[in-house]
Amino acid sequence: MQSTIGESKKAFMTGNETVTWAALAAGAEVMFGYPITPQNEVMHYWTRLAPKFGREFLQTEDEISAGFTVCGAVQAGKKAFTATAGPGNVLMQEPFGMAEAMRLPLVAVIQQRGGPSSGTVVYSQQEVTLTTYGGNGEGNRIVYSTATHQEIFDYVIKGFNSAWKYRFPTFILGDGYQAKMREPLTIYEPQERGIEMVTPYPLIGKAGHIGADREVQHLCNIYSLEEELYDVVMQHAAEYERIIPELVEYEQKECDDAEIIIVSHGVVSRAADDAVKLLRDQGIKAGYFRPITLRPFPEQQLRDTIAKSGAKKMLVAESAYGQLFRLIRQEIYGETIPIETLLMPGVGIIDYDIMTKVKSIL
Amino acid sequence: MTVSPAVPKSWYLPSKPHKFCPGCGHGIVLKALGEAIDELDIQDKTIFGCDIGCSLLSWDFFNCDSTQTHHGRTTPVMVGIKRSRPELVTIGYMGDGGGYSIGSQHLLNAAVRNERVTLILVNNTNYGMTGGQMAPTTLPGQKTETTPYGRDPDVTGYPTKGPEFLSALTQDDAYIARATVSNYRQLKRFIKNALCNQIEGNGFSFVEVLSTCPTNWRTNAQQTLHFLEDEMEKYFPVGELKNPLGKGDK
């Protein structure tokens, strides 16, 4: 693959620019996109950088088209991706559903903005439900929730590999804060770190004569009989279940003796991390748990953390009105630990907010 | 003695006989397309994408690679494939609802961008698969399930003239035509031209085909042909609107 970054280097850039460099380094060949804040600069950087590396871009007529052109491109064997947010994420649920159904290695970066509807262009964590379980399917998706620019870079690269290895649509779930703020990170070429990139391959339009060199490919996405669809969905579900242990990622700190476990994801987990340190300085035994993959969710890991700590309470903190909270309840059904919440839809959460909440409930 | 009908080499025989209703025009369009694929020798590099609706029944019609999408979304999927692999010949196959209604934004923007895809849109003046509702192409006064007293243009406007509006949006390198299943040789020539225009790298290529739907029209054979040739062809003029190949309709 053509060198993009060269030797690894320190950088100070926005999250959107980070997405672009990571996609280039991951070997993404084409981006299809439609303007929506706060992801626009992914396209801005991509359109400036892509021609230098022989990569392509198309600004489509809407997000529906951006998603479906990605579906077409990956069927044709190209590493393709898109980026969107908010109402664009809503529109893209249609192509995302097709990617789920046809097992297309689609990669999408979601920079969450405020909702419902047009909401704000700024920030939220309100696209958790949509990104994990949107569409008329079963949520067979891989969703990485990043917290830092370094993670954006790392997980965009990893996301392309997960998509092409497992062929479930893969999402890097960021937010407007991560998209727009600048922070230091190290950018690198995957090969330099020993990361082998999965080579893309076409599902249709392969070389050779049909019948002589290869079978004809009729890709199916709609079934005549209930039983046909049932078999397909059950097979996909079984494959998804099988790969969960390979995919699940989480982060856990100071939980072993914790009285209270603070669960958060994405950029809010940075506040939670700080809050745990500050609370411990004040003699309050707080612990930190963060799912990195929201789909599949680190269910067993969270259950084990609760059991091992013997914590009396759990606090879920998120910039949404209970989307992570709902996910957690569904995943750890049967646990009896009381769960408190700090739900701040569409606004940022800082360490002080979490500390205040913890003190009010202990 | 039984004589097997001549079938195009590019047809996928295990899916025959096809699943369209008796009297439906799809079979004629797909035969013309099959013969065009054969004559241009593009079977191995053709990607056939079909929309949702009756056009979906063609998903395994050809011994060519094919893909299915969602209602109205065949155009962007074909665009994604063609832009990724320009050496492939991409054919989007759709109905009037998929092309002119739910997927109209994709159709018109693909035309504006001069996407090098060939789109074949079958106009039978109604949504066939879903049970005969009004389509953008339903004629004034025509009865459908959602216009049981006849389409009233004051309420739902006049029928969409696709090739005409696409002609207005495209440049000289686009191929735009309207054919009819009542004139097979012309239909096949237009489809072949639309494929050649893509293969030669000129640009956007579009053929609307006037077709029949006796099931939902509730017509017998004679009435079906009458509606096609006298009613539809009067409102929707047949012919080439743009042909950059310099091989006009003779």
Task: Describe the model.
The complex is a heterodimer of chains A (362) and B (250). The mean pLDDT of chain A is 97. Chain A folds into two domains: 9-192, Rossmann fold; 250-361, Rossmann fold (3-Layer(aba) Sandwich), CATH 3.40.50.920. Chain A has a seven-stranded mixed β-sheet with strand order 3-2-4-5-7-6-12, with helices on both faces. A five-stranded mixed β-sheet of chain A has the order 9-11-10-13-14, with helices on both faces. Chain A has a two-stranded antiparallel sheet with strand order 1-8. In chain A, helix 3 packs parallel to helix 4 (86-102). The longest helix of chain A has 22 residues, at 226-247. Chain A is built from twelve helices and 14 strands. With 362 residues, chain A is α/β, with parallel strands linked by helices. By secondary structure, chain B is of the alpha/beta class. Chain B has one domain: Rossmann fold (3-Layer(aba) Sandwich). Chain B contains nine helices and nine strands. Chain B has helices at residues 26-40, 74-84, 96-102, 104-112, 153-156, 162-169, 184-199, 214-217, 221-235; strands at residues 46-50, 65-68, 89-95, 118-123, 126-127, 133-134, 175-180, 205-210, 239-242. In chain B, the strands form two sheets. In chain B, strands 2-1-3-4-8-7-9 form a seven-stranded mixed β-sheet, sandwiched between helices. In chain B, strands 5-6 form a two-stranded antiparallel ribbon. In chain B, helix 1 (26-40) packs across helix 7 (184-199). The model of chain B has no long low-confidence stretch (mean pLDDT 96). The A-B interface holds A 29-30, 32, 56, 58, 60-62, 64-65, 68-78, 80, 94-95, 98, 202, 204-206, 208-211, 216-222 and B 12, 43-45, 47, 49, 52, 56, 59-60, 63-70, 73, 76-85, 88, 105-106, 109.
